[in-house]
Amino acid sequence: MFENGREAREAIREGRWTGPTAGLAPGYTQANLVILPEKLAFDFLRFCIRNPKPCPLLDVTSPGSPHPDRSWAADADLRTDLPRYRLYRDGQLVAELSNLLDLWREDLVAFLLGCSFTFERALQSAGLPVRHLACGCNVPMYRTNRLTRAAGPFHGPLVVSMRPIPAAQVAQAVQITARYPAVHGAPVHIGEPEALGIADLGRPDYGDPVPIEPGEVPVFWACGVTPQAVALAARIPYMITHAPGHMFITDRLDEHLAAF
Amino acid sequence: MFENGREAREAIREGRWTGPTAGLAPGYTQANLVILPEKLAFDFLRFCIRNPKPCPLLDVTSPGSPHPDRSWAADADLRTDLPRYRLYRDGQLVAELSNLLDLWREDLVAFLLGCSFTFERALQSAGLPVRHLACGCNVPMYRTNRLTRAAGPFHGPLVVSMRPIPAAQVAQAVQITARYPAVHGAPVHIGEPEALGIADLGRPDYGDPVPIEPGEVPVFWACGVTPQAVALAARIPYMITHAPGHMFITDRLDEHLAAF
Q: pLDDT below 50 — which residues of chain A?
């Protein structure tokens, strides 16, 4: 545990922390990372703007700069300040790395996207269950029959995450997460998984299945896996992301995102 | 008055409507238009993402395409569907035009940005005063001492609009406008104009002064003039915008933006 985002980033940069980042600097917003060559960056940016629920953009660097805006993280370096990275070529995972110092190029653009850690913390604070956290597993995620809005080469299905919520608390779950549009916002679908093209909640496309108790409704949120899944489906020649669960920790408090 | 956004756009395209668009298709969201050459578009896009309150992006076209995403407006053409346009060269206004058919180029990118018409309608629906509408004049706007976050060549001061609100209704004005982050959202400053560097509310930098009654507080919202003011200050070689008050009318209802 660290006091704040800056201390966590320093520990990661110096190799003192190499594991997943969940709970590492409680209250500080964590972000997904996507890095693309400049010639694809504009289309990806347009894709995110057309699909703000799965792809909530927090910041975009200028080409060649690994530094996010100071309002998100002061003196940060996206080449060193995450514990683990993944390199994809032509839509295939080719390497996992602990830093990007050797890989960085003058034509790379880094995108920070909102992460559901922020709204899960808000749900827990309000006493709502977050089943996969209680189970100690990954959230279940599903490819749906809903298409994203395309931009350039980026197109594909919306991916959703699912959290079972007691029927009497579903409206509260909507109200709480709607306060955080920068981290996926309100659910995109409540109940009726078949209508999303999900045949079996017990067999997620990503992550782990979780039990749904009697009286609970499956609630579906737009998922941050969508932009990665879409970029991979588009067989992007060169892309770097954070490794799952190994996020970028910012200087902003989760509560700031509720008044973003 | 037209029934919906599509009918209003058709009337404008066919030259049957050439005036300002306020109230033209009640309930349908109107948008600001900015058009820039592709080589500046990425930096402008990053500028908007770093400054979401003054620059709430609704859509961005692909280079050369004058067509916004169908989810915003079906079968729309940004070259013909606004009543009046302005052409700027090197930061100077050089022409006002009724369409862009002769000017359109394959390297142009169009940006649609949220417009305060949407939240003013919500304020009025809740019974709050919107003074400049009652006075039949333009909203007063002020350059402030707050800087926007820079991106590439785009930098400069935040511009705010001001609406006087009775002290007992200021909190309500915050709550109502906070529901609409896609059209500037909650105020950026309440009371104390000196702290924003505004010496005299009676002398706005843009628009018209409005009376502030006893018991009212000046409430300041981030203003859509900011991106235009910043682009002009950066002496952008080539830029097209809508003419003031002559907006693009979409197919989306204002109420949709409250759950964007």
A: none
What's the gap in Å between the CA of A59 and the closest CA on chain B? 6
Interface predicted TM-score (ipTM): 0.77
Q: Is the minimum CB–CB distance between B181 and chain A shorter than 8 Å? A: yes
Window 37-56 of A: residues touching B by CB (8 A cutoff) are 38, 41-43, 45-46, 49-50, 52
Q: Are residues B13 and B110 in the same domain?
A: yes
pLDDT digits (tens, 9 = 90+) for B58-93: 999 999 999 999 999 999 999 999 999 999 999 899
Percent of chain B whose pLDDT exceeds 70: 99
Which of B38, B49, B59 is nearest residue A57 as measured by Cβ atoms?
A: B49
Nearest CA-CA distance, residue B161 and chain A, Å: 19
Could you tell me if B212 and B138 lie in one domain?
yes
The whole-angstrom distance between B143's CA and the closest CA on chain A is 21
Query: What gap in Å lies between CA A219 and CA A120, rounded to an integer?
Result: 13
Residue A156 is part of a domain; what is its CATH number? 3.30.2040.10
A38-50 helix and A225-233 helix, angle to the nearest 10 degrees: 130
Q: Are residues A136 and A100 in the same domain?
A: no
CATH number, domain with residue B105: 3.40.1640.10
Domain extent, residue A189, equals 117-227
Q: How far is CA A26 from the centre of its chain?
A: 17
Residues B240 and B112 in one domain: yes
List, for residues A59-101, the tens digit of each pLDDT value: 999 999 999 999 999 999 999 999 999 999 998 999 999 999 9
Tally of domains in chain A = 2
